[in-house]
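Class, discuss our next protein.
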Amino acid sequence: MKIFKTSIIFFLIFFAVNCNKQSSEKAILVIHGGAGWISKGTISEELENEYKLKLKESLIAGRKILNNKGSSLDAVQASIRILEDSHLFNAGKGSVFTHDEKIEMDSSIMDGYSGNAGSVSGVTTIKNPIDLAREILDNSVHVFLSGKGAEDFAIERGLVKVDESYFFTKKNYDKLIQVKMENQDIKEEKIGTVGAVAIDFQNNISAGTSTGGMTNKRYGRVGDVPVIGAGTYAENGVCGISATGHGEFFIRNVVAYDIAARIKYKNENIQKASRDVIENLKSIGGLGGVIGLDQNKNVVMPFNTKGMFRGYISEKGEPVVMIYGDQN
């Protein structure tokens, strides 16, 4: 009987450790490429490998900056820029179309050391919206710029402007036409954004997020991505968070800051805080996920959809990337 009880205890400990493996990982950079109904078999093996390679490229680029004593802000910006330049993700080059068959992109970045932030919404010709968000953080008296004014500021700061045709992808255009013909919003797709959170050699945490919004969105709709505290938040000594999902729910529930507040005021760890917030969101119909790092380099990537493109990297280890809900 004693041997049996000992075996049971050992099994329970082994099970608990393995269930929380993701929570115990240490990282200096974590990224996401959107959450949604992504399950094994819904994309080809070739495309799956393409996603993974791009996520790894993003992680390696960000870590290179961090390992060279660069800032977490620079690492976040570099990692997101790579994802924006890919047609695979709903940001930058891969942005989805509005009801009027336009591209309207949003982005934000936040510095956990100073509390400064930069946000932009509704830009149509700026190649890398995350670069514009960074310029706003560094060189504007304002936090949040939108539309034409944001693009005017971008041109003044020398950012790359492209023709709107640069953002055209047949896949995204066909999806818009399908949705308009069916006269209903998309309910099950890859929803969201790209994002990154990093911690540098000075223990400064930064977070950033970028998106092309929602297919068939109307009336200049703005989601959670550029709303500091909803889609992006960073505070030294607490955590950095980047979100992806149905923006209206993330705005109303101030998701990114809610996680930070639970850590700061309730002394919850980042694993519990992020998991509970995402589970609570699902209970009210909010779908998506978050990535995050705390001051001790603990990484979290909870989501309540079937999958989320995500990954993390430590100071010296190989990049770890995942897509599906089974942690593969």
